[in-house]
Amino acid sequence: MTTTILCLASYFKGGEFIEECKAQGVHTVLVTTEDLQHEPWPRHAIDEFFAFPGVNLSRRPDIIYAVSYLARERQFDQIIALDDYDVETVADLREHLRIPGMGATTARYFRDKLAMRVQARDRGIAVPEFVHVLNYDKLRNFMQRVPPPWVLKPRSEAGSMGIKKIHSADELWANLDHLGDRQSYYVLEDFLPGDVYHVDSIISEREIVFAASHKYGMPPMSVYQGGGVFVTGAVPYGGEEDEALQAVNARIMEAFGMVRGVTHAEYIRSHADGRFYFLEIAARVGGAGTDKLVEAEAGFNLWREWAKLEVAELRGEAYEPPVATQNYAALMVCLAKDEWPDTSQFDAPEIAWRMPKKHHVGMVAASPDYDRVQALVAEYVPRLADHYVATAPPMDSPGG
Fold first, then answer.
1. Which domain holds residue 230?
2. Percentage of the chain with pLDDT > 70?
């Protein structure tokens, strides 16, 4: 009997996952939104394509009705969330249709910034001090104990979306007045100066079978809200940073209970005490070209490995992780003033990938030599900033 996988996508991403499903002989169904139906999806690998009216796949009960209707004539063996915003929706669909996989409780740890902080703290993992924006006495106590600035974060947005830096109690109360009844969907956190890292992992039967450690050039929130060039790259393999990140990442995976899949976790090393603190985690492939960064380093694509992992489980087979190469790589991305900017001047033979996206410049430089990659970053980032960078105001939500 043919294996059937339903993919949900609130954003245009995950083409490699879909293509790998096709290569594995899977019947693949894609549900996305009407505004994304004309994106260059890999139609050759999609057996059935459905565009959901409106722009919100998480709208209940409509999405449950729609998928349940499709299930009348199809046996879905698995449902996959291709975007962060679909993780909780897919967990609910699995529970409603009684399909094995990550359920609603575990999904919270990978979407809800409050849930993931509480779980990490309760397992003895260092996190920046935080408080749920709920009880005003607790908020006042937090502000008395923890000096500003603070960070006001929506609990279920992706990445740096909707995050605000708060400098005083008066500024916080003004923001809460604006939020009104939405206040409880936020968490207030200590603004911890430090270097920000991410670890991108593959999990198979609760075991980390691959994990790559990276360091951002500057915190993602700073790039998102202030503009500039987004940079991230591999840290030295087996070095002090790598060992510390691998250790805390292993503790997070154990605490959060993922059985199988891919994760993108972020950590910060405090300038004040040198410790690594957990920031957040997502049950997805990292965005903005992170998959191409890892591919240049390790020699395989995270989207494709995720598909192989899911298909192996459905067929009762053991997943065999690939042997990773250990190249060094760096990802550089910025908004561009031109629709299709000419990047031919960046002609180093180490350029392994260029981003094919309107009003963006993006590239990955890769080499077995860590110092060579760092030299290219030092040379290229100022040139990108001088000749290409455009800025756009940050969005509080995906709709603007």
1. 194-387
2. 94
